[in-house]
TrEMBL record:
Species assigned in the record: Soonwooa buanensis
Keyword Kinase: yes
Protein name according to UniProt: Mevalonate kinase
Annotated GHMP kinase C-terminal domain residues: 253-303
Keyword set, alphabetical order: ATP-binding, Kinase, Nucleotide-binding, Transferase
InterPro entries, alphabetized: GHMP_kinase_C_dom (IPR013750), GHMP_kinase_C_sf (IPR036554), GHMP_kinase_N_dom (IPR006204), HddA/FKP (IPR001174), Ribosomal_Su5_D2-typ_SF (IPR020568), Ribsml_uS5_D2-typ_fold_subgr (IPR014721)
Length: 309
């Protein structure tokens, strides 16, 4: 039996805002994926992965998962002894859910209860998110559980607020479309922990809390609403505001290599950039009505188109 593949994820909207109850829109990204496999552990990568799984299994053994879910840790540990490793091309520290895919793969294989993403209820989605938050806390200290949930479901998810989330349909990908959502490689890896620390420090000041609530969350939610309706004029209008806001308030999270092109996009209106995940490195998200034009302006940077419209 082939083990299922678990894809990476991309937070299109809602990074940091979801901590403060904004909406979020997260989609799977099939270019990167991972799966659990057995091998003789001949390569360094396989050995390292197997060793990490051993340590992770010890951590999972200490958890009491909420609800009726149980993980068969004994079977997991036995498989690790027999050469289990996580075969993944998902880059770490790039904001695309490397630990999320691993958590989803382990849950799928060792959970006592099997769920079908197509028929899962809204209530079970909430339970799963809580379970995944516990399981992923090993990697980030604190986790919302959102990354593993997206990787597990392999469907776009709309986070309505801290309590509610649901499956959602995004507009069809138009392979011939001029417009695009794309990733830019900043060339350095980012670490989630320190970036979230910076955010919480900023949240201690009243001015930042106020602008977060009154501006960031408003623009963010308006972008999601317009994107889902494929209403591109209000979408780009709010996206520009969001990009300007991030440039002013999320400076520490924007990799230095990206400062100038971020500003260039705002000034020229040729494209707009935003963080992909917590920032600090990894990927940056770009949106443009004319990808050919944006691509020329961003020559020298490695880019990947993830969606056309």
């Amino acid at each position: 039996m082939t083990n299922p593949l678990f894809y990476a994820k991309i937070i299109l909207f809602g990074e940091y805002g979801m901590i403060e109850n904004s909406q979020g829109l997260v989609v799977p990204y099939s270019f990167y994926k991972g799966t659990l496999k057995f091998s003789e552990l001949a390569s360094e990568f396989e050995k390292k992965s197997n060793h990490h799984l051993q340590k992770y299994a010890d951590f999972l053994a200490t958890l009491n998962l909420p609800g009726n879910f149980k993980l068969n840790i004994d079977a997991f540990k036995k498989d690790i002894e027999e050469g289990l490793f996580f075969d993944s091309n998902i880059p770490q520290g790039y904001g695309v859910g490397s630990s999320g895919a691993l958590v989803a793969a382990i849950f799928e294989k060792y959970s006592s209860e099997k769920l079908s993403p197509d028929t899962i209820s809204k209530d079970n989605l909430k339970k799963l998110k809580a379970i995944f938050g516990e399981m992923e806390s090993y990697f980030h200290g604190k986790s919302s559980g959102m990354d593993p949930l997206i990787c597990y479901m392999n469907l776009p998810i709309l986070i309505e607020n801290k309590e509610n989330l649901d499956k959602v349909a995004i507009p069809d990908h138009a392979s011939e479309g001029k417009g695009a959502v794309f990733l830019i490689d900043s060339g350095i890896t980012g670490e989630t922990g320190p970036m979230i620390q910076i955010f919480f420090e900023k949240m201690k000041t009243e001015g930042f809390r106020k602008t977060m609530k009154e501006e960031f969350i408003r623009y963010n939610n308006a972008c999601i609403e317009a994107f889902l309706k494929k209403d591109m004029n209000p979408f780009f209008k709010n996206l520009k505001k969001l990009s300007v806001w991030a440039y002013d308030h999320f400076k520490p999270m924007i990799p230095e290599s990206i400062y100038n092109i971020w500003k260039k996009g705002i000034d020229s209106n040729a494209y707009y950039l935003k963080l992909c995940g917590s920032g600090g490195g990894g990927y940056i998200l770009g949106f443009t009505k004319d990808y050919e034009k944006a691509e020329k302006m961003l020559s020298g940077f490695q880019k990947e188109v993830i969606y056309r419209f």
